[in-house]
Design goal:
The complex is a heterodimer of chains A (341) and B (402).
Chain A (H helix, E strand, L loop, with lengths): L2 H29 L2 E5 L1 E11 L4 E11 L9 E5 L3 H7 L1 H9 L3 H4 L3 H33 L2 H16 L2 H12 L4 H10 L9 H28 L4 H9 L4 H29 L3 H5 L9 H9 L9 H34 L1
Antiparallel strand pairs in A: 1-4, 2-3
Helix pairs in contact in A: 1-14, 2-14, 5-6, 5-9, 5-11, 6-9, 7-9, 9-11, 11-14, 13-14
Chain B lengths: L1 H10 L2 E3 L14 E5 L3 H11 L4 E5 L3 H10 L7 E5 H10 L6 H7 L8 E4 L2 E10 L1 E6 H7 L7 H12 L6 E4 L6 H13 L16 H13 L12 H9 L3 E7 L18 E4 L11 E9 L5 H14 L2 H6 L5 E2 L11 H8 L3 E2 L7 H11 L1 H4 L5 H18 L4
Helix pairs in contact in B: 2-11, 3-4, 8-9, 8-14, 14-16
């Protein structure tokens, strides 16, 4: 392919990526160094409002934002350096916690609490998704051809469900006297509250995520299973390989690129865990990094949002994902170099 | 109840075409309204819909949508249902219009107390007052011979006595869902204990004796509540009441009518309303008003139609049909048993929600996010209050208040 054709082919997608990925990222990065404030004035304001017994008028000194000639609140944007990052990471409190040698105290700081959950969630669900994905793929591959279509359809169902809706379905099964909680209470003959402590919520989140994502891994692995070299399998059988040995020495090496692919996708997705926190309204017990960003972005009763901190926390999330992906990407890179030689 | 919110928002979006006899004029201007979702608001929006061409969205998450929707030009909604808290961001941003001329033209039915005035200009029309107060199962209290609690300590004592009889799943219900609800519970009790939220120049001042007492009061109730109290919002507690699972709770006056709704409630006629428990200074509750505002960014013709439709929504006819849905400020309201608790609470000196303090938004958020750690037993009371003050200070400094 000559250079011109090559450029004509990739040009549009590079343009799109610059427009929709690079530029927004650059804006967020910029915003994470700035804070926007309303300009306030202090005035005496008289407010008359109803009470149960009649109207009451109060005069008080209030700090209120100034509205400009264009009808919008006047704001000023200041460069604040790393102050947004400091406010998210709260290093003085981290240092104090370590000085006290207290992991408990460290885990009470929002960002680190969220990071702890996000990391453990990502790293626990990953092997489970790979394992169950492979298991489902092998099962599908071994059922009779005549019913394979319906089996694939049924096993894909969890993936089709919108994440928030799926999380809510699990919530309703377990909250209060939900169907499954009632069943568990009957089974263990004791009162069970699944939403009253962090570990049960984390367990349900993990369960939900594996249930939701394993079908994706399964369908990818199932596709890979269709291209396993049958000659190699036959040779292995003739050499007396057991089922396990066939899996370990023929099938798994063949699927390796797909396993890496699913790992990459899952690391990126799971690190952005958010739907579960919203769906289970778990913010009292369990929060994630993405939820923290959302919370900074939510306007309070006065309409203020912490855009700067939200941007800083987004950048930190991106840095976190990149760090997680480096080992996997390095493996891919080394493989690629090895093959080229 | 996330999906419930979505479902309510979608299902209650009512569209009515063609005027009904109940509306005095035939509205031909397309109008949209956005508001919170509760029975009284539904009664008002239904009455507005009778004029034709009115689409109402009732959404529990309305406060997250409203400031941006009203800031759009033209505004996405012409009519908004607000309380004194949710009006503030609209007022500050100048996205709601003064109503003096419209009131002069079409508002002859309004009582003076319904006019919300800021610096002399009418900015909103109030329709009802609201607060949280004690609701209790009169049958259970009578059977066990327990007097109606007037303080939190008495509530705990009653709950303790009740527990040994196994009449309900949990003696006490509470809207303790982490976030806005939990913050509101603290604000109620803290004000009841005579607390002040801010010192000089919007600095926080909750880390004090009143704050500690408030935290300990809140925690003293939790052993008698559903262990999942940190996910219980108003609708969840209302349902627990209706299903006979709890025996007493401090719940919004707007939820009182639902207790006697035979279609959903199994405890019709058994739930009685009383004053909110007393704090050391006044009743541990805050008084709110709910009302209607109109967007700045619409044509005067639209504003005219919107105002006339709203006046039909809050007329005497609507109140007579929905007398027990709220404590109405509108002519024709007769205070019945459903309103008794709200009025008793106000008589016991409950303070208005302090929405006029500019830092209150940041404070409410900090409280809602920070209190769970204390109730979970992760932090001491003093540390919790200090951390909430620190979180508030960061936000307030960022937004330029400090």
């Amino acid at each position: 392919m000559n250079k011109k054709t090559f450029l004509a082919f990739i040009g549009p997608s590079v343009l799109m990526m610059v427009l929709f990925i690079a530029l927004p990222l650059a804006t967020v990065l910029k915003q994470s160094f700035y804070q926007t404030q309303s300009v306030y004035e202090t005035l005496e304001v008289e407010t008359c409002s109803p009470t149960f017994t009649g109207q009451v008028c109060i005069k008080e000194i209030k700090t209120i934002p100034i509205i400009g000639d264009n009808g919008k609140v006047i704001t000023q944007t200041n460069y604040v350096g790393l102050s947004n990052y400091q406010n998210v990471l709260e290093f003085p409190r981290v240092i104090a916690a370590f000085a006290n040698n207290s992991w408990h105290e460290f885990m009470l700081i929002d960002f680190w609490k969220a990071l702890r959950f996000t990391l453990s969630f990502t790293l626990i669900t990953l092997p489970l998704v790979l394992f169950f994905g492979l298991l489902i793929a092998l099962c599908i591959n071994n059922v009779a051809k005549s019913i394979r279509g319906p089996v694939i359809f049924v096993s894909l169902l969890p993936m089709i469900i919108t994440p928030v809706i799926g999380a809510l379905a699990i919530r309703w099964l377990f909250i209060g006297d939900g169907v499954l909680t009632s069943f568990l209470e009957w089974w263990f003959a004791k009162d069970i509250a699944m939403f009253a402590q962090a570990w049960t919520i984390e367990f349900m989140m993990t369960f939900y995520r594996v249930w939701h994502v394993a079908p994706f891994a399964a369908i990818v692995f199932y596709a890979g299973l269709q291209t396993v070299n049958q000659d190699t399998i036959e040779s292995a059988i003739i050499d007396g390989a057991s089922r396990w040995q066939k899996l370990r020495f023929v099938i798994l090496p063949h699927l390796m690129p797909l396993i890496v692919f699913v790992t990459l996708i899952h690391l990126m997705d799971a690190y952005r865990v958010f739907e579960e926190v919203i769906g289970f309204s778990s913010q009292a017990h369990v929060i994630s990094l993405q939820w923290l960003t959302y919370d900074f972005l939510t306007a309070d009763l006065m309409g203020n949002r912490s855009i700067g901190r939200a941007s800083a926390s987004s950048m930190l999330t991106m840095i976190g994902i990149t760090l997680l992906l480096i080992p996997v990407l390095r493996g891919v890179w080394n493989d690629y170099k090895g093959k080229r030689l | 109840m996330f999906l419930r919110k979505i479902a309510t928002a979608v299902a209650i979006t009512t569209l009515s075409t063609g005027a009904w006899a109940a509306c005095s004029f035939d509205n031909d201007t397309e109008l949209k309204s956005l508001s919170n979702s509760f029975d009284a608001m539904k009664a008002v929006t239904d009455a507005m819909a009778e004029c034709g061409n009115v689409t109402s969205t009732l959404d529990v998450d309305f406060k997250d949508k409203m400031p941006d929707a009203f800031a759009a030009n033209p505004s996405l909604y012409q009519i908004g249902g607000v309380s004194q808290g949710t009006m503030v961001p609209l007022l500050n941003a100048g996205t709601i219009r003064p109503l003096d001329d419209l009131v002069a033209k079409y508002g002859s039915q309004l009582k003076p107390s319904q006019l919300i005035k800021v610096n002399g200009k009418i900015m909103a029309i109030a329709m009802q007052v609201n607060n949280q107060h004690l609701m209790y199962r009169a049958d259970i209290f009578a059977d066990l011979g327990i007097a109606v609690p007037t303080t939190y300590a008495e509530m705990v004592a009653a709950a303790k006595k009740m527990q040994s009889y196994n009449l309900v799943d949990y003696p006490i219900g509470g809207t303790y869902k982490a976030g806005w609800n939990l913050g509101e519970e603290f604000i109620n009790t803290y004000l009841g204990n005579g607390g002040e939220f801010f010192g000089e120049g919007n600095t926080p001042s909750i880390n004090n004796a009143a704050g500690l007492a408030t935290l300990n009061t809140m925690k003293s109730l939790t052993p008698y509540m559903d262990p999942e109290y940190l996910v219980s919002d108003s609708t969840y507690v209302q349902q627990q009441f209706q299903q006979g699972k709890i025996a007493m709770a401090n719940l919004w006056a707007t939820r009182a009518g639902a207790m006697d709704n035979a279609e959903e409630s199994q405890v019709v006629g058994k739930v009685v309303m009383a004053s909110a428990p007393m704090g050391s200074v006044r009743a541990a509750s805050t008084n709110w008003w709910d009302g209607i505002v109109f967007a700045t960014n619409m044509t005067d013709a639209q504003a005219d139609a919107a105002f006339r439709v709203a006046m039909e929504g809050i007329d005497t006819e609507m109140v007579q049909a929905n007398n027990d849905a709220a404590v109405w400020l509108i002519d024709g309201f007769v205070a019945g048993s459903a309103a008794a608790g709200a009025i008793a609470t106000a008589d016991n000196g409950a303070a208005p929600y302090p929405s006029s303090s500019p830092g209150m938004g940041a404070m409410h958020t900090a409280l809602g996010n920070g209190l769970a750690a204390f109730l979970n037993g992760e932090k001491s009371a003093a540390k919790t209050l200090a951390d909430i003050e620190a979180a508030y200070t960061i936000t307030a400094t960022e937004s330029g208040l400090i």
